[in-house]
Write a structure and sequence with these properties.
Beta-lactamase, disordered N terminus, protease, five-stranded mixed β-sheet, Beta-lactam/transpept-like, hydrolase, 13 helices
Length: 527
């Protein structure tokens, strides 16, 4: 695919060219105004915090209307961006797939039908839909039953061939693999909830009726793909210490620890090994409930023949709607599915390599200097991703001209808004400040990595694009420092006021979450 440089991208390059400076804080080509000098001093003071001793910090702020750089510290330094990487993936998906793009899951018959008997195989073909629930598979089974099919003499064939067989990002760490934010990627999968955490199952532990009994273990959705090894104990009283973890390389879930009689159910989200088989198991059970018997076995990974006749179909929500759970909750699985879908649609290859090529070409057309960055996955879970903050600001400035911008902007987390599907990963941050219900930005977290990149409207009504990327710190969290910078930008004004003269703003404490995870990655949700 050849690169196309759109007129809007050329304009964006002119607007944000000054954002490409690096090193220590720099003035713009014009002499800094007194307000800008104060802003420099404020952000410098935040970055001088002892929590960043020995760390790396990159911060860039640009006025999107004029292209003027208001602040630049290490803007060209390549830093690990964590989930800020999703800004590239999501904008490329909106442009190249389109807001109306949907994923299709269908069922086809591979043989003749007569009097309720299908003589041949039944094909369940996945189209990559990360929002498929057990209820959706039940509706597909109902559609099959409604055609009159009662017995299938052949196999149930689970067709996941839209994408390649690589299930995990090449740079992901092995010890993340059981946790739901690192779920395996397949074109045929199941989500257990309406956060659409595809490729995971919710395991529930309820205390037994008496001390000494095993807790009762259930799964959502109910399935036969995973096996429970229940080693936990119900106790008369005491602290709940239930641990739920899938063993690496298989589908045995080990439950250990204790839970007291009368305590609430403990739940955790775990990934499955081979989501294609999980989806096939859920669908086969649904067929049985609707009176459809499959006499053969379940076969994974075989393509649906062109001669197969359609029986049932389910279309996902449009991409414009999927952007909300994707960006608000920083859903890694959605990012990786979209990356593979981009590769499939644009080059016929549902692989990370093809998808990342498509993303790179789009963001290059939008003005990013792709020679200065490296993107290794769609979500930012890889530590080999390296993106300079100035390049994020370039992209953020450029996409304002896209017809889908308003939809995408609304899907970004909104600071201080308690509604989980508005505030997202920022819902507990910056509440009660000038940044609340103002900052629209993507968060990012890995151990020793934090980022916040997006937009803020300043006190004079200007829309500013900013990127804050912090690496190699040793403390548990630096998100309060990001919040202080965002609040300072929301309060920024060229007018001479008492507020304008204030130095470092205060920020409410951010919620405590395990180091290296987005708040939405902690299940049950605690932010």
């Amino acid at each position: 695919m050849h690169r196309r440089l759109f007129p809007r991208a050329l304009a964006a390059l002119v607007l944000v060219a000054t954002a490409a400076t690096a090193g220590a804080p720099t003035a713009t080509a014009e002499a800094p105004t007194p307000a800008q000098t104060r802003l420099h001093a404020t952000i410098d003071a935040v970055l001088a915090d002892s929590r960043l001793d020995g760390a790396q910090a990159g911060v860039v702020v640009v006025d999107t209307a004029t292209g003027r750089t208001l602040y630049d510290r290490n803007g060209n330094r390549r830093l690990v961006p964590a989930s800020n990487t999703k800004l590239l993936t999501s904008t490329a998906a909106m442009e190249l797939l389109g807001p109306g793009h949907r994923f299709t899951t269908d069922v086809s018959a591979g043989g003749p039908r007569r009097a309720g008997l299908l003589s041949g195989d039944l094909y369940l073909r996945g189209g990559g839909d990360p929002t498929m629930l057990a209820a959706d598979y039940d509706r597909l089974a109902g559609q099959v039953a409604a055609t009159g099919v009662r017995v299938v003499t052949g196999d149930l064939v689970a067709d996941d061939t839209r994408y390649d067989r690589s299930r995990l990002g090449p740079d992901w760490t092995w010890d993340d693999e059981p946790y739901y934010y690192a779920a395996q990627v397949s074109a045929l999968t199941v989500a257990p909830d309406t956060d659409y955490d595809a490729g995971t199952v919710i395991v529930n532990a309820t205390p037994g009726a008496r001390a000494g009994a095993r807790p009762r273990i259930s799964m959502t959705p109910d399935n036969g793909w995973l096996r429970i090894d229940n080693r936990a104990e119900t106790v008369a009283d005491g602290e709940t210490t239930i641990s739920i973890e899938r063993e690496h390389g298989g589908n045995t879930v080990v439950v250990t620890g204790q839970i007291a009689v009368g305590q609430a159910t403990e739940s955790d989200w775990v990934t499955v090994w081979e989501p294609t088989g999980y989806a096939a198991d859920v669908f086969r059970s649904a067929l049985r409930r609707h009176g459809v018997r499959v006499l053969g076995r379940t076969v994974l990974g075989t393509a649906t023949p062109d001669s197969a006749r359609p029986l049932a179909r389910h279309d996902s929500m449009p991409l414009s709607d999927l952007m909300v759970p994707f960006l608000k909750l920083s859903n890694n699985g959605h990012a990786e599915v979209l990356t593979k879908e981009l590769g499939r649609v644009l080059s016929g290859s549902g692989s990370w390599a093809a998808g990342l090529t498509a993303i790179g070409e789009y963001v290059g057309d939008a003005g990013m200097d792709t020679g200065t960055l490296r993107q290794r996955d769609g979500s930012g879970l890889s530590r080999r991703n390296l993106i300079p903050p100035a390049q994020f600001v370039t992209l953020l400035s450029a996409v304002r001209g896209e017809p889908w911008f308003d939809t995408w902007y609304a899907a970004l987390p909104v600071a201080g808004n308690a509604d989980r599907f508005v505030g997202g990963t920022l819902r507990s941050r910056m509440a009660g400040t000038a940044a609340a219900n103002n900052v629209h930005a993507k968060t990012g977290s890995l151990t020793g990595v934090s980022g916040l990149s997006g937009y803020v409207t300043d006190a004079d009504g200007r829309l500013l694009a900013f990127s804050i990327v912090l690496n190699n710190y040793l403390t548990s969290s630096v998100k309060g420092l990001e919040d202080q910078i965002a609040i300072a930008l929301a309060s920024y004004t060229e007018r001479e006021t008492a507020t304008a003269r204030r130095t470092v703003p205060t920020a409410p404490d951010s919620p405590r979450v395990p180091e290296g995870r987005e708040c939405s990655w902690v299940k049950p949700v605690r932010c």
